[in-house]
Amino acid sequence: MNVNLDQIRAFLAVAHAESFTRAAEALHLTQPTLTVRIRRLEEALGIRLFDRTTRSVVLNRTGAELLPVFERMIDDLASVVEDARDLAEMRRGVVRIAALPSVAAAVLPGVIEQFRQVYPGASFIVQDLVADRVVDRLREGVVEIGISGGDRVPDGLNLVFRMSEAFRAVVPRGHPLAKRESLARDDILQFPLVALTQSTSVRHVVDTWLGGADCPPTIACEATYMMSVAGMVSAGLGIALLPETAREVAAFPDLVSIPLSKPALARDILVLTREGRALSPMCEAFCQHLIGTL
To answer: Is the pTM of this model over 0.70?
Structure first.
């Protein structure tokens, strides 16, 4: 069966006008061209659609049954075309992002709010995940933009932007280190640590930093999320090393954060996309806005 949109539009025009002459005028076609389109549609379907007389042309029973079907097809197509135009012209669109929890909580809200002032039709789906899961979601195509940590770009992904984020020590206000202006690695090693699990980019960076010391650290507790780590520090279970953007610390008024030095501790934040996959227009615009903001 070879039915095309021109034939369907010709059928609808004749059905509504009940005249080949008026339908041809409405479609800006010659009458012979319109007649050929109707004949080819009937041949493709294997049925007649109109009862023709010398004075009029009206739908037969089969044509009347197909009329609402073809009308719905044209309406659906118009809706699809309008949706496509909205996406292309960025009147609306969904931005799907997987990001480290610290970035999702501290950085993305402000960036998204600024972006939506320019593109109010943009909506966002943000998954806050540990670094490995960010990469997995990006590779699976679940998200278009990934914000992860680490010093290398995972296979199959493109590096769009790289920035550095400093770390700070988090201690209770009554802790012996709480009033220090900065802390060295040897200061940290005097006390037990509350650490993030080894699946996180934070743990990898912290372990590398601590690995340069003469004696290994004492890990008192491990947790998957920074909120849990901050809660454990608040309870007096140890001190923590967290990114300076970690807003979870602010949830506990009894905690203070102190800069690190000798040596300084920082991690790379990577903005990533899938290799060989173009971003949707709205995601491309947001990615550029994100880079300009970071």
So the answer is: no
| Residues 42 and 8 sit within 8 Å (Cβ to Cβ) | no
DSSP string, the chain: ----HHHHHHHHHHHHHT-HHHHHHHHT--HHHHHHHHHHHHHHHTS--EEE-SS-EEE-HHHHHHHHHHHHHHHHHHHHHHHHHHHHTTSSEEEEEEE-HHHHHHTHHHHHHHHHHH-TTEEEEEEE--HHHHHHHHHHTS-SEEEEESSSPPTTEEEEEEEEEEEEEEEETTSTTTT-S-B-HHHHTTS-EEEE-TTSHHHHHHHHHHTTSSS---EEEEESSHHHHHHHHHTTS-BEEEETT-GGGGG-TTEEEEEB-SS--EEEEEEEEETT-PPPHHHHHHHHHHHHH-
Distance, first Cα to last Cα, the chain: 55
Judging by beta carbons within 10 Å of its beta carbon (0-12, 13-18, 19+), is residue 249 exposed, middle or buried? Answer: buried
CA dist 113 and 96 (Å) reads: 15
pLDDT tens digits for range 129-174: 888 899 999 999 999 999 998 888 999 999 999 999 999 999 999 9
